[in-house]
Amino acid sequence: MEYYKKILRFAKPYLNYGYLNIFFNILYALFSALSFAALMPMLNVLFEKDKQLTVAPVYKGIGKLKDYFMDYMNYQVTQFAAEDKMKGLVLVIGLVIFLFLLKNLANYFAMYFITFLRNGVLKDIRNAMYKKITELPISFYSEKRKGDVIARITSDVLEIQHSFLSVLELIVREPLTIIFTIAVMFLISAKLTLFVFIFIPVSGYVISLIGKSLKKQSDDVQREQGEFLSVVEETLGGLKVIKAFNSESRFYKTFSASTTRFFNFSNKLLNRQNLASPSGEFLGILTIGVLLWFGGKMVLVDKTLDAPSFITYMSLAYGVLTPAKAISKAIYGVKKGNAAAERVLEILETENPISEKTNAVTKNTFDSEVNINNISFKYDDEYVLQEFTLKVPKGATVALVGQSGSGKSTIANLVTRFYDVNEGTISIDGIDIKDFKQESLRGLLGLVTQDSILFNETVRNNISLGKEDATDEEIIAAAKIANAHDFIMDLPNGYNTNIGDSGNKLSGGQKQRLSIARAVLKNPPIMILDEATSALDTESERLVQDALEKMMRNRTSIVIAHRLSTIQNANTIVVLQKGKIVEQGSHAELIAKDGTYSKLVNMQSFE
């Protein structure tokens, strides 16, 4: 129930729908009980001559309300049946039909209002999950497979709707139907009703035994679904490599192994869940059978119950079976939904290590310098950077070079605060970046990465990502600076052309120039370029490099470079090796030293 309470907090905005649902469920339960009870006067008059009343009954107080109600109904039916028995029959049939009409109208309105609550909760859970997914740091997704996260926001949330939220339809209606029905049954025969209660704890115990293992089995199903969705996601992302290395069969084996496990887990879960309806129905029929024996004895032997009352009583008892079965299925649903709720809440309740202080600073200008002061950082156990210090004055271009794994890209991740340093500080204009509002910090920064991350939208929407209110003139100006305008105009619909998933309709150089145009339009005072030209051919590199040089004019830039020819004009070049600075200076100064940088330049000149 703990998970259930946490999920139900999303129902608060929709409580009015919940109250209306409860109101109509009360009416449904009441009319459900009365629709069966209405048969009794007809049976009394038609089959028991001594129950016919020719004189209207007198009300004798609340204690005799049952007798008064039954006598009044008998009197009305007797009056109609006096002239023609069929009139009395038609009266009672009309009453029963009318009560069933009211019952089903109440049921419709109850379902109508609960629909808004259920779907509203579903929408808000999904929105909360998406918001949390975007808030969580990059490090969270190095531990979680993307397919598993997708499974949680899709199938797990749907499972909550089918299991947890379906209980909302039953939580008032079915128990009240049982309560009202049993109340009428108690009025007809207290002795017989008390006998029924002996079997209720037995039925409950059997149902609980069946449902105990449902949560674990459901957890296995949900987890395995996340596994094969991850395989699908990785397959689509790496399809070129899979085909190039003829690895289709290998990935198929991995996927089919996962779906086989899913098949087995699902069979165990559903077969256990499928026991709910037959076991509940069998226990109900068993109770009916015992009632027929015990009640029949009261009618035929003890003469303590008349036949019409017993027939009505049995109709009511059988009418209890449907809500009882629904409740037993709902109990299984809650147990099954616990696993899905746990997986959803794991995301929603994950603490974000990249926290924002309550009095965080908002700053829209960059005035003096970026200061990376004696920082150390590790992703796992080994330090990637150790006692690293660097100052980037306003207007300067600082380039970071070094072999792969030396910590260059880590600097970009730390300055943008995708990760927090383990030791030391990073400050902008003397303010620790941990003291900034994250939105404010990233508003000062522009990022162009080696992998051009574009979205399945138009060229216009991709460029204006960081400035949604940008005018057409601003977008075109940014594209011209990025040397992208000409090729954009050659596209079928110009700036309104959809570029496909991840921009796959464009070449590598075109995608990179759109990324640059996006950064230019944002116009941040500090630019971080993470190996922005390393994946390009020579011609594309020339166009992109020209675009980068235009963009970096009069701007503070941190350039992470693989191709050293692109950073020779940098004010300062920092050479990294295993997370530490081994050389620092201008291109000419470092060449003159004939050290690590000079060797790197000579190696690339022979490539």
Explain how this protein is built:
Residues 370-603 form the ABC transporter domain. InterPro entries: AAA+_ATPase (IPR003593), ABC1_TM_dom (IPR011527), ABC1_TM_sf (IPR036640), ABC_transporter-like_ATP-bd (IPR003439), ABC_transporter-like_CS (IPR017871), P-loop_NTPase (IPR027417), Type_1_exporter (IPR039421). One of its GO terms (cellular component) is plasma membrane. The model has no long low-confidence stretch (mean pLDDT 78). The protein has helices at residues 2-8, 15-37, 39-47, 65-83, 85-135, 140-143, 146-188, 190-197, 199-211, 214-237, 239-244, 248-273, 276-302, 307-348, 408-415, 438-443, 459-463, 472-481, 485-489, 508-522, 538-552, 587-593, 596-605, and strands spanning 369-378, 383-393, 397-402, 423-428, 431-432, 445-448, 526-530, 556-560, 572-577, 580-585. By secondary structure, the chain is of the alpha/beta class. It is elongated and about 120 Å long. Helix 7 (146-188) runs antiparallel to helix 8, helix 13 (276-302) packs antiparallel against helix 14 (307-348) and helix 22 packs across helix 23 (596-605). Helix content is 63%, strand content 10%. The longest helix is centred in the N-terminal third of the chain and has 51 residues, at 85-135. It contains 23 helices and ten strands. Strands 6-7-8-3-9-10 form a six-stranded mixed β-sheet, with helices on both faces. It has two domains: 2-348, ABC transporter transmembrane region fold (Up-down Bundle); 369-605, P-loop containing nucleotide triphosphate hydrolases (Rossmann fold, 3-Layer(aba) Sandwich). Strand 7 (526-530), helix 21 (538-552) and strand 8 (556-560) form a beta-alpha-beta unit.
